[in-house]
């Protein structure tokens, strides 16, 4: 079954403030993402990156401020019946969030099955297509419990792609993965960026991912976007918070690489 | 440190009352949103049957054992109390106790402990590990997908389980009458008395309790599952609370139904 890829929609985050129990997590976030762009939101743990992406996906409502996707308020978009949505949004979660009682194919086709939008044959064909896209062909009948962490991430990505989304959010797509798998997932996201003209927002603390996939990088610090620009501009930043994040990330990255070489050496 | 001053105690009590009211409100709202219409019932039929099988398979063996022994205990205990009177009424006492009260409440407690707790743990884990959020991003309403089949399955399965427990309990009673030397009435007399005293209305009241208890346990279990936060500790805490609240609400609704049944002609 030949499918037309999603077209990409813009995202506008306007002065978003978000609080949990009087603790301000986001303190006036402003950011614009163009249709078809891949933005990496970087920041340390607890800076509110995941909260920001959940707000963008309409899973939570901001305390104040407004988020628009494709020119619509995100709450208006989520309230629309599935058949009336002018574009589609998908998300890849930190823990993959595959339904444990369903097989890989059932997970991937769940959306289509529930909305009765495709025939059984088309669903199977789409499943095969997206599994091939994430290099997981042949795993249709496996249960999530039988998959490794990296495989689960790939299947989660396949499930997100099966909807043919226009806007794809990633919440820490490489969390709990080793550097080799991190790079593989990064290359997959980069391939999606190349092959599909969709908008992608990748929330991560991983510089490897940012390097591979980002058209633009935004640094979240103290509940605000401290700075944004290309990856190269980001590396050359003079901002003390960014410098300190980069310094820590480089140490971690070089340590991971050394560990990885040791492992490879042992295996060989 | 725990504040033991009068104000601290009042504040804690007030907070607990507010939490309880908020929880009851959540359960009611969830119930209101999840009661299926005919189309929804048809669409969810596969998941409803799947849930009914889970309820039955998890409860039936233990329900058989408990109901059987409760029936025997009832006979032995009641016979002992009637030692100076006639034991002819044993049949009606055992029959009415099982069908009107013990069968429904016993099964409700077993289902709350075995099935309700596993519903909360399962949905709680799904909430903690973003599976519920994943459903939302796929435009799948978690209440329709997760709650509706469970509420419907419980509402349908509990009355059947109650009928079964009533029968097994009465069977246990018959066995006790037959085997216990302290009981000096025949099995035929026990049975005649039992059959003549149980009215259809008694059985129907037991079945109505089954539907109400089933819906209550499912709604409470799902509501606590969906509101779970804070990792595995949160799942454990939600599960305990859901079982406790299911027990409490079953007893409250039991009283209400009994009171209303008494008013029936």
Describe this structure as you would to a colleague.
- The complex is a heterodimer of chains A (268) and B (265).
- With 268 residues, chain A is an alpha/beta fold.
- Chain A contains 9 helices and 10 strands.
- Chain A has a 6-stranded mixed sheet with strand order 6-7-8-3-9-10, sandwiched between helices. In chain A, strands 2-1-4-5 form a 4-stranded antiparallel sheet.
- In chain A, helix 4 crosses helix 5.
- The radius of gyration of chain A is 19 Å and the shape is globular.
- Chain B is an all-alpha fold and 265 residues long.
- In chain B, 86% of the residues lie in helices and 0% in strands.
- In chain B, helix 1 packs across helix 8, helix 4 (90-128) runs antiparallel to helix 6 and helix 4 (90-128) packs across helix 7 (187-197).
- Chain B is globular and about 65 Å long.
- Classes of the chains: A alpha/beta (268), B mainly alpha (265).
- Chain A binds chain B through residues 54, 57-59, 78, 82, 85, 89-91, 93-95, 97-100, 110-111, 114-115, 163, 169, 171, and chain B through 126, 129-131, 133-134, 136-140, 145.
Can you tag this structure with a few keywords?
heterodimer, A: 268 residues, alpha/beta, 6-stranded mixed sheet, 4-stranded antiparallel sheet, 9 helices, 23% strand, globular, B: 265 residues, mainly alpha, 86% helix, 0% strand
Ordered list of secondary-structure elements with their pairings:
The complex is a heterodimer of chains A (268) and B (265).
Chain A: E1 11-20, E2 23-33, E3 38-42, H1 49-56, E4 64-69, E5 72-73, H2 74-79, E6 89-92, H3 104-115, H4 120-133, H5 149-162, E7 167-171, H6 179-195, E8 199-204, H7 207-213, E9 216-221, E10 224-229, H8 231-235, H9 240-267
Parallel strand pairs in A: 3-8, 3-9, 6-7, 7-8
Antiparallel strand pairs in A: 1-2, 1-4, 4-5, 9-10
Helix pairs in contact in A: 3-4, 3-5, 4-5, 6-7
Chain B: H1 6-34, H2 38-43, H3 45-81, H4 90-128, H5 131-137, H6 142-179, H7 187-197, H8 200-226, H9 231-263
